[in-house]
Design goal:
Elements (H helix, E strand, L loop, with lengths): L9 E2 H11 L19 E7 L4 H10 L4 H7 L1 E4 L2 E2 L6 H10 L3 H4 L5 E4 L17 E4 L42 E2 L4 E2 L2 H4 L5 H7 L5 E3 L18 E3 L20 H19 L15 E6 L1 H7 L2 E2 L2 E2 L2 E3 L2 E2 L1 H23 L6 E6 L13 E3 L1 H15 L7 E6 L3 E5 L4 H12 L3 E4 L5 E4 L4 E6 L1 H6 L12 E5 L3 E3 L14 H4 E2 L2 E4 L6 E3 L3 E2 L3 H8 L8 H6 L5
Parallel strand pairs: 1-27, 2-11, 2-16, 3-27, 4-28, 9-10, 17-24
Antiparallel strand pairs: 3-26, 4-25, 5-6, 7-8, 12-13, 14-15, 16-26, 18-19, 19-23, 20-21, 22-23
Amino acid sequence: MPRRPVRPARTVTAAAAALAAVGALTVTAAAPASAHPRAARHVLLLSVDGLHQSDLAWYIARHPHSALARLASGGVEYTHARTTIPSDSFPGMVGQVTGGDPGVTGVYYDDTYNAALLPAGTTHCAGVKPGVEVDLTEDLDKNKDALDAGQGLAGLPGSILKMTGNAASLLDPSKLPVDPKTCKPVYPHTYLKVNTVFEVARKAGLRTAWSDKHVAYDILNGPSGKGIQDLFAPEINSSAVGYPAGDDWTKDNAATEQYDSYKVKAVLNEIDGYDHSRTHKVGTPAVYGMNFQSVSTAQKLPTSDGLAGGYVSKGVPGPLLAKNLAYVDGQIGAFLRELRTRHLDSSTTVILSAKHGQSPTDPKALTRIDDGPLLDGLNAAWKHAHPGAGDLVAHSVDDDGMLLWLSDRSKAATDFAKAYLLAQSGKGNGIDGKAKPFTASGLKTLYAGAGAARYFHVRPGDSRVPDLVGISKYDVVYTGGKGKIAEHGGAHADDLDVPLVVSGAAAPHGVRVAHPVRTTQIAPTILRLLGLDPRSLDAVRIEHTPAL
């Protein structure tokens, strides 16, 4: 029997009363939990890395009977949601489950620098000079080339669901930065400055689970280290078995889909009331979910599986991305069907969003710039002006924005770096590989020193904050080759404008909210849905983050 077309969504004006009646749209997170009885028994959070609100709208318009269309029409669609700045996976995901921005959570990117911690491997801490890279990538795994991060499972990749749910046990402590006060390694969960929805749920006696792309997502456990009871985190940057030697699961979009499908199976097992491996009957979690990575690779790869990646024109998905949107739609459809089969649809709220977008969505705008010569030139200029000095750049992260940490954090040094970078011009290359000029190192704005600290609302000299924060021009992607056509991490609309849908239990149907919201509002919303106090979250109290 054919499904009926999705009904046109009501505007926020027409639906405001319905939203207010179910508590789905609020203006403050200050109300106590007792004022908000439990509206859902389960919250399934789905993050589709790279997905824009425009991608969701494009797909639904062409597939009105799709799972994504049903999800949006069965709840509240916030059409002007934005993720964190920087728009990277770690601050983006951390924001969704803490309610906080990087200045509060202390998490600026997946690979940063801390001026107060000691180098990894330090065992005698007295007199050791502080300052170290804080890496939250595959480099922390016991074996980053293995899908199981070094657990040693036989029969990979087919056996991957047997991977432990204790992700922290697969981190190599010798690779972790060291706390000078305790002289002990700093695990990702202890690096996070605020608590998470998983910790609040655990304290309330509720079950929790999550699936993500690195075991370093131990960070989502929160400072207690105990927030997530079942954290399934197969390594996405491991060697992809069955694909060309040396390729990881992000180098081919079909491989990324295969990788995502392992996590989908884990979530389906959890819907059925098992742990991710389907070994133990534990009950469906109250808070659980996963991230999808395959949309992101479909946006970034020039070609894969014989299809062109990215967009054919501004905001119009090309064939690879369109195929992958259909893949994600199919997996979300599987979740919705399983929830109905298990009679959990009426007690489950599904939240769909993204850690980040991807930029640019206009292929003609692309300007690829090799940041290596820019930073080498800055170091050379600094040493020429300061004979005997070492490199000025202690650490850098440049995707489609620029974050620099300096070895000299003085005003003179940050001003020097700013002036140098804004004076640089040269040639990158465009979508066709031909030379394309750039000025000011590809930057639109550059915050330095105290200005960079103010940008993130932290005090100058904070040990974690970057010394320079560069907002690139819309077209810029920092890369040394031609193998990438989009990136994230920056502050453009294409980086920030992500979908946000709250659907299912407790949500009115067919509502579209046009006023601006933030993905950090997901965290207090999850607690509110579960009848828990949003103000149990540290970041919510600090930033006054409202529930949706």
